[in-house]
UniProtKB/TrEMBL annotation:
PROSITE patterns: ABC_TRANSPORTER_1, ABC_TRANSPORTER_2. This is Dipeptide/oligopeptide/nickel ABC transporter ATP-binding protein. CDD domains: ABC_NikE_OppD_transporters (cd03257). PANTHER family: D,D-DIPEPTIDE TRANSPORT ATP-BINDING PROTEIN DDPF-RELATED, TRANSPORT ATP-BINDING PROTEIN. One of its GO terms (biological process) is transmembrane transport. InterPro entries: AAA+_ATPase (IPR003593), ABC_transp_ATP-bind (IPR050319), ABC_transporter-like_ATP-bd (IPR003439), ABC_transporter-like_CS (IPR017871), Oligopep_ABC_C (IPR013563), P-loop_NTPase (IPR027417). Signal peptide: none annotated. One of its GO terms (molecular function) is ATP binding. NCBIfam families: oligo_HPY (TIGR01727). Keywords: ATP-binding, Nucleotide-binding, Transport. Belongs to the ABC transporter superfamily. The lineage of its organism: Bacteria, Bacillati, Actinomycetota, Actinomycetes, Kitasatosporales. It comes from the Bacteria. Residues 23-274 form the ABC transporter domain.
């Protein structure tokens, strides 16, 4: 990886710019119809994949979106990148409502919002050379960089830590981590301002995950690109995101700055997610072993979610009120501004006494050390 990342763009991540909203999502909802019946198939219900979420990503900020499989993270990412049309609610990019924008209306901002996918194997065309893959978006958008596209491809390969001479190779000649780097280079080719990264390291070996997270972090910081980083566990985004939202069954149940979410979480589900990391501390066998929360049962179906608080069927604190009243997402007393929780009976703001801080994987531990240093 080169020390200096340079893009031929006027893109600076200034401190002031960090407060400027880039993406604003309000009441965003996506219901997928469920069809059934014979002989006439009709809509018999809806999968409430995303159900009224609000979030803001600021310029050059990294925002983490975390939750178990099936809670609506990818759908949220696809709504934001407009691969899907929302059922209701709005998505605004730089103040412009793009929720129902047509292809033509989207054209000017298409290049500014890019997506990185989970599976580096299926997201790259096996028949195209790396050069072709990375320059593809430039061709489609008619972008001719100074010095030509091939020169730009070489620069991008260097930025993502690959050999610039390998632009004529095919995806199968690269490892999983390298393919994800190619995916990153492709996303960078249009000089985006926002990257939606949907579980970009979940398919990679744990030892490679930290390297790719490191690369993305460097890209975010040095090129000033905002990220919506989607992950299924809190460990990955911890190193990456300044703010984190936790999703459960289509809703955001807690959101806040990194310290609030990891050190002072209030929602029982956030506590459970934090304690779900393995309890053995490989780095220090003498470290005290703490209580762990085990989530009983499966995530309920998003076709017929529980009334009131959707987490109540798995929550150890649930009471009658939880079934009858949906808890609003609000700032609880004592919490920092921007730290919002949706729970009638929140946990104490501490993670003391649990194993959540233990990072089992040495690669992630190394990353943590380097990001603290
Ligand atoms: N195109 C679709 N049609 C019907 N249901 C869908 C579709 N896409 C996703 N879903 C459902 O929506 C819910 C949320 O899915 P998804 O956004 O992929 O979750 P996640 O990325 O958090 O695992 C799941 O129950 C999933 O089965
Ligand atoms: S509202 Fe009730 S069921 Fe939901 S998380 Fe809080 S205590 Fe648990
Ligand atoms: Mg997903």
């Amino acid at each position: 990886m080169k020390e200096d990342l340079v893009l031929p763009a006027t893109r600076e991540a200034t401190e002031d710019a960090a407060l400027e909203p880039l993406l604003e999502v309000s009441g965003l909802t996506k219901y997928f119809p469920v069809r059934g019946g014979f002989p006439i198939r009709r809509t018999v219900g809806h999968v409430q994949a995303v159900d009224g979420i609000d979030l803001t990503v600021h310029v050059a900020e990294s925002f983490g979106l975390v939750g178990e499989s099936g809670c609506g993270k990818s759908t949220t990412g696809r709504l934001i990148t407009r691969l899907l049309e929302p059922t209701s609610g709005s998505v605004s990019y730089r103040g412009q409502d793009i929720s129902h924008a047509t292809r033509k209306q989207l054209a000017p901002i298409r290049s500014e919002i890019q997506m990185i996918f989970q599976d580096p194997y299926s997201s790259l065309n096996p028949r195209q050379t790396v050069g072709k893959i990375i320059s593809g978006p430039m061709e489609i958008n008619g972008i001719a960089p100074a010095g030509g596209r091939e020169k730009r491809v070489r620069e991008l390969l260097e930025i993502v830590g690959l050999n610039p001479e390998h632009f004529n190779r095919f995806p199968h000649e690269f490892s999983g981590g390298q393919r994800q780097r190619i995916g990153v280079a492709r996303a960078l080719s249009l000089e985006p301002k926002l990257i939606v990264a949907d579980e970009p390291v979940s398919a990679l070996d744990v030892s490679i995950q930290a390297q790719v997270v490191n690369l993305l972090q460097q890209v975010q910081k040095e090129l000033g690109i905002a990220f919506l980083f989607i992950a299924h566990d809190l460990a990955v985004v911890r190193h990456f995101s300044q703010r984190v939202a936790v999703m459960y069954l289509g809703k955001i149940i807690e959101v806040g700055d990194r310290e609030s979410i990891y050190d002072r979480p209030r929602h029982p589900y956030t506590h459970a997610l934090l304690s779900a990391v393995p309890e053995v501390n490989l780095m220090d066998e003498e470290a005290p072993q703490h209580e762990r929360i085990r989530l009983a049962g499966d995530v309920p179906s998003p076709i017929n979610p529980p009334s009131g608080c959707r987490f109540r069927t798995r929550c150890w604190k649930a009471q009658d009120k939880c079934a009858s009243e949906e808890p609003p997402l609000v700032r609880l007393s004592g919490n920092r501004s921007g730290h919002l929780t949706a729970c009638h009976f929140p946990e104490e703001p501490t993670t003391q006494g649990r194993a959540e801080d233990i990072v089992l994987d040495p690669a992630l531990a190394a990353l943590e050390e380097s990001s603290e240093g």
